[in-house]
User: Fold these one by one.
Assistant:
Number 1:
Amino acid sequence: MIEEYLFRAILASLMVGTLLGLLSPLINVKGIAFLTHATFHALLFGAVLGMILGLMVGNLSLIFWISLIVAIVVVMVIAEMEIRGYSSDTAVGATAGLVAGLTVLGFGILYKVMASKPYFGLSESIVTYLTGEIFLITLNDLWMLVLGGVIAFAIMLAFYRDFIYLSFDPEGLESHGGNVRLYLMILYFLVGAIGGLIVKTVGLITLQVLAVLPGAIALTLSKDLRGLIGLSLGITLLTQVSSVILGYLLDVPPSGLATVFLGTLYGALMVRRKLA
Amino acid sequence: MEYVIEAENLTITYNGYEAVKDLTFKLKKGETMLLLGPNGAGKTTLLRVLAGFHTEYRGKILVFGRPPLEVKDRVAYVPQTFSLNTRVPLSVLDVVAMGALYRRGIVHFNVPRDIIDRALEVLDFLGLKHLAERPFRELSSGQRQRVLIARALMSNPELLLLDEPLSALDPKARIDATSTLSKIKAEIGLTMIITTHDVNPLIEIGDKVMLIDRRLVAFGTPEEVLRDEIIGSVYGPASRTVKVGERLYCIIGDVHLRVR
């Protein structure tokens, strides 16, 4: 009989794998891997801010909501800066730097607030946001993940071709009547929203790896769009589910296993390419 | 007389800096204008204004009698191929279909059948139908250029703007691209503006030539503009125009090394 927490973890990993498997090729072809780095900082700042407020008002579910909102606001600011002519590097660097500074200030306040509270739930600790705790996913967390994930999935699928064209030739898209601003905003919104939705499951560090490497690997191996998406989805789902099962069997963090597996696979491909 | 473009004392600026100034010219329907000038002369800038991408300018510029921004759907712009992100694994058909999709709503999960049929028809017209399923990134520079022209034709434009369609092409690919443009001129009668560093392969389809160097140097027929004293004033005294039989050739040396 499969244990309930493991079953929840597998369901969560299927949702995470689907979302990141679809998003990762876009991150690679659009060249916005650094955006996931900014999302990392935004989510951490949001989690710190959410924890401060959550501990103060006694509602730790604020961590999820505030980190989600902060991540979305930050990526939208970056999108707006790019639309206004700032380079992607500058927009991400400046925004992520500012948010990182605010996070340091936030930690200073958080420690003081924590010192005044004798107990808070393990599943809501800041460390969870860094490493991910898929085995501590509650039924409520799972519902949020599935509900939000289905909405994000539907939006991403509906605009997928437009995101691909946006990555291929934004000027051409505009000259043929496409709304570059709209598509860029939706794409960046999705990066922030998906990051906020799944961070508790995989953690901030693994989120960056899972958002970038499956798409990078698929891009190396596939020749067409279908192959790219199919391979990325397959790699992400396989990595996520197998790392959860292995993590359970070996009693090690699944997010760490997923990172090592994808890193090794990408490294092997690079070596093969060099030798070819 | 029906003019497609009317420009009068047009000065284009970027953040207040004058990129090109005092352009005055008119282009009639069906005419092809070759836009010549050294690097940084303002050729692409002028195309971007005509395409409605750049709106920071003074003076008068009308396309089909209206400001460019209002007639974007009647104009097609063919960018330089190096500006494309070829890491994206799109097929030739995907790229060409892009030219018609954005007339229909904002969501494009699938490419409608009629757009696929139209894309195949345009590819066939340009002799590229056999490449339809090939990955765009695997094409040669010349084939890519012609696919981008096919994409531009998908929206049935009335004005076609081509940014250096012959740059970085080998001689064979240049001939193919020039033949494509000749066919469009002869069979569709499109009004075209083509920026180029090398006017020679295109001279037969050019009704007008405009020479700019951050200002208007000359505008007129090829015979009026391609003269030693005019070419020499921009490209230096080593530049020449020669006539072989009835054909005019322009020899302008390596303008890329010119120091301002």
Number 2:
Amino acid sequence: MSNGDVHGILRYATSPGSSSFAEFLSAAAPDLLPRHAHHESIPHGTTIVAALYDGGVIMAGDRRATAGNLIASRDIEKVFASDDFTLVGIAGTAGLAIEIVRLYQVELEHYEKIEGIQLTLDGKANRLATMIRGNLPQALQGLAVVPLFAGFDIDAPAGSPERSGRIYSFDVTGGRYPEQYYASVGSGSLFARGALKKLWRPGLSADEVVRVVVEALYDAADDDSATGGPDLSRNIYPVVMLASETGTQRVDDEQLGAVVRQILDDRANRPGA
Amino acid sequence: MSMPFYASAEQIMRDRSEFARKGIARGRGVVVLTYDNGVLFVAENASSALHKVSEIYDRIGFAGVGKYNEYENLRVAGIRLADLRGYSYDRRDVTARALANAYAQTLGTIFTEQQKPYEVEICVAEVGEVAADDQLYRLSYDGTIVDEPGFLVMGGQAETLTAEVKREFRAGSSLADALQVAVRALGSGSNGDAARTLPAEQLEVAVLDRTRGKRKFRRITGETLTELLPASTNGTESEPAPTDTPPHDV
């Protein structure tokens, strides 16, 4: 259609069939797409972990962002609800990561409003993979963004084993990998994964898994300088979120404070831990 | 050599208006009205897949009557405009007034410049923090925009239906009462037809509920809807609704 035929708001409606907000944005306002110039001291975010529990999935992220050897932020949030049933946590260049999450949230809501139904859980994971792949040129310049995605599969039939929490990890090229029990990304992820291996068991309750993920982040912060540990004096705790059949929910600081104090007590009694 | 055919501007506009009005009048009606917790949309719609009512943004809803492909086109464009504004500024910067203005401009241009006007009438509604801030905009095929207080009716037999709703509408009534007013109006007979009782399957009902979280739009379907409807419409046999005449002619 030539420009002369397009009327006002309808220039936004001239390509029927696409329910993707990101595609629409790249045509209508490409300058709004997440993009950054290369710069030395850009804040980076660090460790994200996710693990299944008996009614869904839990994701947690530490609160530190670093710029070189400096701490750029003590209370940054890197775990978000991407819609009613899914969570996304991002490690990597903080500004870019937060912008990609914001675009991803609009992407899911946009699809749901235009189509009248939500994407399936696999569809949501694939969409995120495509967006990460779109960031590959920046990733090669050192501005990598690597997400962890988790959600509850509400489309699976009631009673089937698929009707549960699921976790996907990604790489910078947009590779998408379903994970079975737990996963971690970011600079402290090796240490977090070691902790998860020892602490996680099938069939744990939500409260038990909250302790597991907080302890995994504690181990990551213990050995990785770019991951922040819980800060009791400032009341800064990891962001911990659940996705279950009833939706997403953030674990409040009161519960996290109790969990953190318990972990510290247990470790104080176990020198070497 | 043939003489160029002359028609006055008045005649052309009158013809186009009549054409659009005829198309709109073939569809079944939609009633949009305020209640104590927000805005209620009630459409007579036998299809559960092709919607007349939709969510646009956090606090904004949409209803359309007339030719499906035309109001669907406007709906999608509205969602895109709203998401674009919300993404580039902030979610609170998306308003029904701006959206209604965009629709008005577009419909006005199409009415004067295109061979055929859009055979649609649409409503853009926004729910406020308090009832006084609720807004209902009615947009007609020619770009006319009206800010309606309390309620509006669109579609076939709109005048009869408006009279019905006007008689019974009370500002600040409960959801069940508002729904009853709308359903009774939609089922009311005109031209001597007997009043019909509309069952839940023939209704598309949604609300913008100010008590909800971020996204205020919610469809009311299934059991929730049946429970809200007055007892007389539950389980009674009713005649099948006449389907929408496809608003299409040559």
